[in-house]
Amino acid sequence: MHTTRRRVQGAIVGGKYILSGLLPGSSDAVFRANEFGSGRSVVLKELTVDPELPEEELPRRNRLLRESVLLLKNAVHPLLATVYDYVDEGERVYVAMEWIPGTTLAQAVLMSPVRPSRERALRWGLSICDCLHHLQDRPRPFLSPALNPDHVMVTETGEARLINFGLGRIFRLKEPGLFTDESALLVDEFHRYGDLLTFTLFGRSITAAELEQSELPPRLTELLGTLLRRRTGDRPPTFQEFHRCLREALQSPTDAPSRQTVWSRLRGALRSPMKWCRDQGWCWPRRFSS
Question: What's the pTM value of the predicted model, to 2 decimals?
Fold first, then answer.
């Protein structure tokens, strides 16, 4: 059984990595490290075992870890953090990943003095949509159950890159749900993506009803609504097709809102002025709530 005792700065991991510090802001232990020989900076994510996980379940979970790391090593994509390998020291297991400097998507949206433009937010959304399609376009689709704004990094060049694949869930009691072809779990994946996309646009999680009252163009509102309402029959069937529809919505001219929509928004502004100001980006929420 793997222990949860933490390593210290300067410790050697797997005979090939030297720890240089603990990264804050994660529920699991995540370290900066340097690789011997190459000097390459990496991230080492320590995977901990739920004490209630039955001992006889460990071999299957270890096999799942090997399969996941192998898939991610080969799933080369410019917007995915590269997974290099994993180290099993008996008492501890680590996954070595690419170090990507930048700010998380949550920080980029909430801490900026000006909300990112709609075009930029949608281009970030297109990038993550492309990543999700890349991971699922295979005989055993690989899901991202940890998808949220804290697990997307906005780089110094303004790109959005997916940096967390949910590997920390492998040794938890609940089934991690990484590989699946079950339609219900794919619906959950689309819903997580919808939450991330609307957060990027509005700076907070919103409901489908609130989306209807927004100032987004009708086609974009319709697309996002299919994600938030989990309407399997209405939304595009794959992330590749959704990417195409979203790109077309981004490139199409903005449609003028109907008179009914204008009156609905005016009533909303009069009923709750502070909420309306927040939706326009003039009053910021203090922090992202997962």
Answer: 0.81
